Amino acid sequence: MRISVMSQMQRSFSIDLPSLIPLQLPSRRHTHLWYVIPDEVKSTSLLKRYSQLLSQTEKDGVDQMRGDELKKNALLARTLVRTTVARYQTNKEVDPRSLMFKKNVYGKPEVDWQNCKNCNHQPLHFNISHTDSLIACGVTVHVPVGIDVEDKERKIKHDVLAFAKRFYSADEVNFLATIPDPEAQRKEFIKLWTLKEAYVKALGKGFSAAPFNTFTIQSIPGTEEGYSLCKTSEVTADPLEETKKCNGEWKFAPLELADSHYAAVCIEDDQANEGAPMRVIVRKTIPFVEDQLISERIFL
Amino acid sequence: MATSFSFSISMQARVSATTTRFCLQKPASIFHNGKTNLSFSQRHPIPARLAISCAVKQETVEKVSEIVKKQLSLAEDQKVTARTKFTELGADSLDTVEIVMGLEEEFGITMAEERAKEIATVQHAAELIEELIQQKTA
């Protein structure tokens, strides 16, 4: 019975694709972070195979992108999501093409388990982010996840402090203002951007739920990479009385990927996990070709 | 739809034509079972105020396109029209926010962050700008 299902799936591939190597779901405290470097995917036949995995809507989306490089990156982003989610399916080889996706009421993409044939409903959450030169996908179970990646060398066209004053919280502006070297300041600005974006994406309620100036992400004193989220209260006549509510509900992991990118992962702290450190396993991949374990890090 | 804005910026159409059309402030597509439902107008009735006052000047569209091109370092001959989506040009959220800052400087307005981040096309940006300018001068 299993064999005939598999051969039926193989017949449905018009070009023979190797099978996807299955993956174990992350445990509750883990985030799996996968990334692809577009420059490392050069084979046109491989890219053709990837395009066969996409739904018509996704293919249309790829076609709308202006220019070959943007089209390729859009293709790789959808391929990364489909193949990664398919690999976590337990006990069956799920065709990545049969996965269905939908958006929650605020527009955050999710797996549509109900409409996927042969899929097991899993408490799997994912989020993607990409730049010109790197595409990443984070996966968790039971808790929502948000990720953001930015090129370390990304130039901000406006004055960094002016930008921060316009969009970031007062405490974050003060922090950036204390950095004397403009290069170092730009880097911290970008790191902060990835942390803030990761939070908003993890929250999954759209931009209006968490405007950037309504929350501060700041280092936890005494830690090198610990960050916490503090909400600034909204309407205060006296800025000195601005009350902050810092909670431990959200956990952050700032990372560097491929020496070229800053990345941030944000997950909601599960009640069951309270106090437990956050673990991020980073792997580089070329779908159907290879995986490479890059690092396994703990964040307190 | 929106045939009046489908010509590219490179055309020297200096007639300052304003065309009234329905403005869509929110992204139009609705996902259902993974398929895009393109019949958007029924789901989101347009408030009368917006329908009547929603005219966008070609000049605004051009200025927005210039700022977008500059922010994304696009080639001069890259076609950017009112309907062009920022994402199609490779813009991410940081680009969108920088574009908004450029628009605020150019037009002397301030956009709320939530609305700014939801701008998807040149047309959306132009509509929001003109709405804010009108509010300022009102």
Automatic annotation (TrEMBL), chain A:
One GO process term, biological-process aspect: lysine biosynthetic process via aminoadipic acid
All residue ranges annotated as the 4'-phosphopantetheinyl transferase N-terminal domain in the record: 48-136
Enzyme class: transferase
Stretches assigned to the 4'-phosphopantetheinyl transferase domain: 144-237
MF annotations from Gene Ontology: holo-[acyl-carrier-protein] synthase activity; magnesium ion binding
Keyword Acetylation: no
Highest rank taxon of the organism: Eukaryota
RNA-binding keyword on record: no
Keywords per UniProt: Transferase
InterPro entries tied to this protein: 4-PPantetheinyl_Trfase_dom (IPR008278), 4-PPantetheinyl_Trfase_dom_sf (IPR037143), AASDHPPT_N (IPR055066), P-Pant_transferase_sf (IPR050559)
EC number per UniProt: 2.7.8.7
Cellular compartments per GO CC: cytosol
Name of the protein this chain belongs to: holo-[acyl-carrier-protein] synthase
Organism of this sequence: Brassica napus (Rape)
TrEMBL record, chain B:
GO cellular component terms attached to this protein's record: chloroplast
Major localisation: plastid
PROSITE patterns attached to this UniProt entry: CARRIER, PHOSPHOPANTETHEINE
A Pfam entry, by short name: PP-binding
Pathway(s) the chain acts in: Lipid metabolism; fatty acid biosynthesis
Nucleus listed as a keyword: no
Keywords per UniProt: Chloroplast, Fatty acid biosynthesis, Fatty acid metabolism, Lipid biosynthesis, Lipid metabolism, Phosphopantetheine, Phosphoprotein, Plastid, Transit peptide
Domain of life, source organism: Eukaryota
Key word Chloroplast present: yes
GO MF terms, alphabetically ordered: acyl carrier activity; phosphopantetheine binding
InterPro entries on file: ACP, ACP-like_sf, ACP_chloroplastic, PKS_PP-bd, PP-bd_ACP, Ppantetheine_attach_site
Subcellular location: Plastid, Chloroplast
Family under the similarity heading: Belongs to the acyl carrier protein (ACP) family.
HAMAP family cross-referenced by the UniProt entry: Acyl_carrier (MF_01217)
Name used for this protein in its record: Acyl carrier protein
Taxonomic classification: Eukaryota, Viridiplantae, Streptophyta, Embryophyta, Tracheophyta
